[in-house]
Specification:
The chain is mainly α. It contains nine helices and four strands; from the N terminus they run H-H-H-E-E-H-H-H-H-E-H-H-E.
Length: 230
């Protein structure tokens, strides 16, 4: 049975993000084919895709290697996410379905419950699922794909400290869902912008010399989430 190149691509990408392959290390087709139990054809296709995504570079006399992003390139990714996440929330307020709302509300309930218990690992997974569902509710395949790639690359380049007050983070998630449910795209955008800016301050570069990331931009008008349903 021929394993699709996209499955091989996902496996290699996941291993890059997890640090199985160090930055700058060579990725030979033979080694990868043996590791994932496939022929070299899907590996070759996967490497081309990963190069287009920025995880892999082709070097003269060395072939495919894991990319070595600069600090500026890493910072640019966070700035892009700060711009695109609010756009996704605004579109979701206009295009979401009842199925999307049901999932988002369920995630908020679980997140608030886990926050009370202090389970940080569960919260991280639930937070990722929340934001993936939110952008899917935007009805924009291009935006969904772009943000998905950004999240993978940010997870590769940064470690994320657990929030000091996770309940506040999930209060913001609840406020976003309320705005989306009411079709209030401006409020959904504003709350998501504030939430994303705060989340970015917990990111620290993984490679040597990495420091805590300064907030990408400063919100001029803090958003009041009090009084909203959660």
């Amino acid at each position: 049975m021929r394993i699709p190149a996209r499955s091989v691509c996902t496996a290699i990408r996941d291993d890059i993000v997890a640090g199985v392959y160090e930055r700058g290390s060579r990725l030979t087709e033979e080694l990868l084919a043996r590791r994932y139990g496939v022929s070299r054809v899907p590996v070759r296709e996967a490497l081309r895709t990963l190069e287009a995504e920025g995880f892999v570079v082709t070097r003269r006399h060395a072939g495919a290697c894991v990319a070595e992003p600069t600090e500026q390139e890493a910072a640019d990714l966070l700035e892009m996410r700060v711009l695109l996440e609010p756009l996704g929330a605004a579109r979701a307020a206009q295009r979401r379905t009842e199925a999307h709302l049901k999932v988002l509300r369920g995630l908020v309930r679980l997140g608030q419950e886990r926050a009370r218990r202090g389970n940080s690992e569960d919260l991280r997974s639930l937070g990722g699922w929340f934001h993936e569902t939110l952008v899917q509710a935007s009805g924009s395949p291009a935006l969904t794909s772009t943000l998905g790639q950004l999240r993978h690359k940010i997870a590769w380049m940064y470690s994320v400290e657990a929030p000091a007050h996770p309940a506040e983070s999930w209060t913001e998630h609840g406020a976003i869902v309320d705005a989306v449910a009411r079709g209030d795209s401006d409020r959904a955008r504003a709350i998501t912008a504030l939430h994303t800016e705060r989340a970015m301050s917990a990111h620290r570069l993984r490679f040597p010399g990495g420091e805590r990331v300064e907030r990408v931009r400063t919100s001029q008008h803090p958003v009041n989430t009090a009084g909203l349903r959660h």
